[in-house]
User: Fold this.
Amino acid sequence: MKFYKRILLLMVLFLCYTSICAFSYATVVFDDISDSVFRLHIIANSDSKEDQDLKLLVRDNVLKYMKEISTDVSSKEEVISLMEDHLDDFKSIAISTIRENGFDYDVNLRIGKFDFPTKTYGDISLPSGMYDALRIEIGDAIGQNWWCVMFPTLCFVDVSSGSLDDDSKAVLEESLNDEGFDLVSENNSKSKFKFKLVEFFEDIRITLAEL
Assistant:
């Protein structure tokens, strides 16, 4: 009987050890990814066609301005600083776009950490979790979302071909460690398992933080 109790204890200890190692791995990898990107999140007033079309017009004008002012930006920290310095400009652009199209919605802009779902940009996939981002809420902000990555500049690339351009991928690769870049760029059974593992433990972290 003592023998089986020892076996059971060893199995429990091994399970605990494995879970701690997996959690540590997932935390380190996700933090590396989230610390290397800055994202954009736009929420429409509602799901009506008019509000969804308006959301895309706001997106286009915001990204156009972002592209104009970010030509010399080379790090996430510089992007966040740029966003903070020009936050009023972004709000003015969003409001002007809304008014020019016959709506009177207010706009709320915030820079902070927000929960993002899994998103794929060409051959790069980012796991779900908390990311630093600029959030633009239009009106009641209960409509469908639009998401992208402002740094590296995945908002500005054509991903219809199924792959990112070399410059954008190079910036992302330079920002991440090898494990992080392999996780978001490779598409095999091993990387998919690690990807899901990272998402699983990040979901647990978010849930615990909300308690």
